[in-house]
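Subject: Predicted fold for Peptide deformylase, 170 residues

User T.R. writes:
Posting the sequence so we have a shared reference for the thread.
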Amino acid sequence: MAEIVVYGDPVLEKVAEPVTVFDEELARFVADMHQTMIKAHGVGLAAPQVGVSKQVCIIDLSVGENPDDLFVLINPEILEVDGSQKGEEGCLSFPDIITVVERPNSVKVRAQNIAGTTVELEAEGFLARAFLHEIDHLNGVLFTERVSNLKRNMIKKKVSKRVKAGTWNS
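User M.O. replies:
I've generated the structure tokens; pasting them so everyone works from the same file.
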């Protein structure tokens, strides 16, 4: 299982590289990401969050309970967004930090699946939020960039206090 990197690691703020090879190694990496996400009780995980700068993210709102609920998005591209929703978001790279983020209510995405086949997916509500959050990671955008400066500064203060106390990585 992979280790989740936390805020402060430069890989989280870089645009990830496109995936060009669809093979067993990629399939193993995605399976490992899924196990890592489940162990961390997350609903999504992007490759940069495990220190790999590749355009791969997964979303599983069932947290491993239903295999049909796993979405694997490789080299995703947002085609359309619509509406607006506000809701609480957390991030496995920001342990124990949750804040309200405004995002579109629906999204249409084009991506490749694990076999390299191009697919188009539509999502609404919480699933759209998860798609957008994970795709942001692939573009080096953190959820803290989607909130006001005041909220962002409050989060940075929390992180700073935990770094000083030596509890940020735990």
